[in-house]
Write a structure and sequence with these properties.
Blueprint: H1 2-26, H2 30-64, H3 70-96, H4 120-125, H5 130-151, H6 158-180, H7 185-189, H8 197-215, H9 236-255, H10 264-296, H11 301-316, H12 324-347, H13 356-370, H14 380-408, H15 415-420, H16 422-427
Helix pairs in contact: 2-3, 2-5, 2-9, 3-5, 3-6, 5-6, 5-8, 6-8, 6-14, 8-13, 8-14, 9-10, 9-11, 10-11, 10-12, 11-12, 11-13, 12-13
């Protein structure tokens, strides 16, 4: 009786090897699907890191504005990321990819994501899932909008700013992004921008510059004699935390832009990008530290923070090809640029609260030019053509949009509201209600 009970089980055990062999024969091996899996994982993990940069921008801005404006910056940052996510799905992604922008907008986003399981589009994409590719590209868009947020802080109204974000993330960025990353005319020309010194950072910088010109400086920033009056931020510890978060996120920003992790060579390249990215940031910070000591007799922490960010922006256009020494001197030049660009903007009475224009626009231009020293496919004329094309398009469209918003809705709060702080005037709440506003 007991023997009879064990016979079915024994038969099943005997059959298991043949079943396993049949499954192995039908299923693809890791050599076939491994690159797809690993590259999809790279996009997801790098996307998480770049997403976390949203927190870095928020903390940096929250620390560099006065306490009476901190809640406004937090509101702008979570709102702009959320708007970017929706707009890039609605119109941005399909407008930017694939190919050159051809005069019409592809509305509806990557609808293949609505399907369950592996879609035909996933199979066609071949190297990674559509979902991971979409997510990775999306988080870059929000970084562009965050650049504008910091530069125009402490005097801009919330809703006109968010309307600008809608246009920037849904239309402006995807159109210009298609020129290079969508396989458009600049890509065909040979313009090189590995992870976006120009495509992302300079675009944000140009949009911020146009806004700062139309908006005007904060009350009390410049004296009648032209003297610059410093306006200290509320929390330099928070600003430092924000910088470190951005530094961390940049490993995903640049490393993920390898766009492949399916071979030993790809993985080695990603690690090389990490090392170069880190070196450039360190060099930018140390350069700013030394320069401010020499020029001002005391180190300036805000300059050191922006020096690190400028080093990161500088290496973003080509983080793979340089040696570690190459990354060091490219990042160091970025640090020099920030230290001199900040007072230069003040001479022009262009008020940039967090130093976003020197960091993202000026260092972005430098990084795009620096590509020619290590990438044999890049030429100075081609790089300059790309810089000018992105600059003219983004600055001109932004300028027109800011003027339209100014004429219709008004973009600046009243003098009374600016003095009292945007937290109470625009939102009715404060970040630090237990402390007196300053």
């Amino acid at each position: 009786m007991n023997l009879l009970k064990t016979l079915p089980a024994a038969a099943a055990l005997i059959a298991l090897p043949s079943l396993a062999l049949a499954q192995d024969a039908a299923a693809p091996g890791f050599d076939e699907i491994g690159p797809y899996i690993m590259t999809t994982l790279l996009f997801c993990m790098a996307g998480f890191l770049v997403f976390f940069m949203a927190a870095g921008f928020a903390m940096l801005e929250g620390g560099l504005v006065r306490s009476k404006n901190v809640t406004m910056q937090m509101t702008k940052n979570i709102a702009l990321y959320s708007i970017a996510a929706i707009m890039y799905w609605f119109v941005g992604f399909n407008t930017m990819y694939p190919g050159d922008f051809n005069g019409f907008f592809a509305i509806g986003g990557p609808t293949v994501l609505d399907a369950v399981g592996v879609s035909a589009a996933d199979a066609a994409l071949d190297y990674a899932s559509v979902g991971s590719d979409f997510f990775f590209q999306l988080v870059f868009v929000a970084a562009t909008a965050s650049i504008v947020s910091g530069a125009l802080a402490e005097r801009i109204k919330l809703w006109p700013f968010l309307i600008f974000v809608v246009v920037l993330t849904g239309l402006m960025y995807p159109i210009s992004g298609s020129w290079k990353w969508g396989g458009g005319w600049l890509d065909a020309m040979g313009f090189q921008d590995f992870a976006g010194s120009t495509v992302v950072h300079s675009v944000g910088g140009w949009a911020a510059l146009a806004g700062a010109i139309v908006l005007g400086p904060r009350i009390g920033k410049y004296g009648k004699d032209g003297k610059v009056i410093p306006i200290p931020g509320s929390n330099l510890a928070l600003a430092t935390l924000g910088t470190f978060i951005l530094w961390l996120g940049w490993f995903g920003f640049n490393g993920g832009s390898q766009l492949a992790m399916g071979t030993v060579g790809d993985v080695s390249d990603v690690s090389r990008i990490f090392a170069n990215t880190n070196m450039a940031a360190a060099a930018g910070a140390v350069t700013a530290l030394i320069l401010t000591q020499v020029m001002f007799k005391k180190p300036d922490l805000t300059m050191v923070l922006n020096g690190a960010l400028a080093g990161l922006v500088s290496i973003t256009a080509e983080p793979l090809a340089p040696t570690l020494f190459g990354a060091l001197w490219i990042g160091a030049v970025g640090g020099v640029i920030v230290v001199f660009a900040v007072p230069f903007l003040d001479k022009l009475k262009i008020d940039d609260v967090v130093g976003a224009i020197p960091v993202h626009l000026c260092a972005g231009i430098w990084g795009t030019i620096a590509v020619i020293f290590y990438n044999s496919d890049a030429t100075l004329m081609t790089q300059l053509t790309g810089i000018v094309a992105y600059g003219v398009f983004t600055f001109a469209v932004s300028l027109v949009l800011w003027f339209i918003l100014k004429a219709t809705l008004g973009i600046r709060v009243s003098e009374e509201d600016e003095v009292n702080g945007l937290d109470m005037a625009e939102l009715g709440m404060e970040a630090y209600p237990e402390f007196s506003r300053g």
